[in-house]
Amino acid sequence: MHRATRCLAAVQHVTVLGAGLMGGGIAQVAAATSHKVCLVDVSSDVLDAGLKRIENSLSRVARKKFRDNEEEANEYVAATMVRTAACHGHPMGPFQLLDYVGLDTTSFITHGWARDYPDVELFQPVKSIDEKVERGEMGAKSGKGYYEHK
């Protein structure tokens, strides 16, 4: 098995921040490839519109994929939508957002900024994030960051 395929096979749950066009597309592809998806947006209206857009898009895909079998097309849409959960309208605070982005990702970014802008205090690495990363606490993807994740 190719290395990238092995990495993707290990991913089972995907959280997508933002239910707009891009976020909805990412959520649709993840759900269609059998991943459990949590689609998050601070606006319930945007979240609902994103889910409707995904359902409409899946219906178009299903009509092409199952031209001769409307029942299979409907089952495909239903099964994919079941894997897509709407994580309704709770704005995230900064630490919860860090957990969803990934503390390792945040650490990588801040170290890059610190290297590129060594005289800007705002861009210096955050010690508590680096310590959590060293302990393997990467946020939602590892089950623990600033919060416990199941």
Provide a descriptive summary of the structure in words.
The chain has seven helices and three strands, in the order αβαβααβααα. The protein is elongated and about 65 Å long. β1, α2 and β2 (36-40) form a beta-alpha-beta unit. The protein folds into two domains: 1-91, NAD(P)-binding Rossmann-like Domain (Rossmann fold), CATH 3.40.50.720; 92-150, Orthogonal Bundle (N-(1-d-carboxylethyl)-l-norvaline Dehydrogenase, domain 2), CATH 1.10.1040.10. The mean pLDDT is 85. The protein has a three-stranded parallel beta sheet with strand order 1-2-3. The protein is mainly α and 150 residues long. It has helices spanning 3-10, 21-32, 44-65, 70-82, 94-101, 103-116, 127-134, and strands at residues 13-17, 36-40, 84-87. The two termini are 29 Å apart. InterPro entries: 3-OHacyl-CoA_DH_NAD-bd, 3HC_DH_C, 6-PGluconate_DH-like_C_sf, 6PGD_dom2, Mito_3-hydroxyacyl-CoA_DH, NAD(P)-bd_dom_sf. This is 3-hydroxyacyl-CoA dehydrogenase NAD binding domain-containing protein.
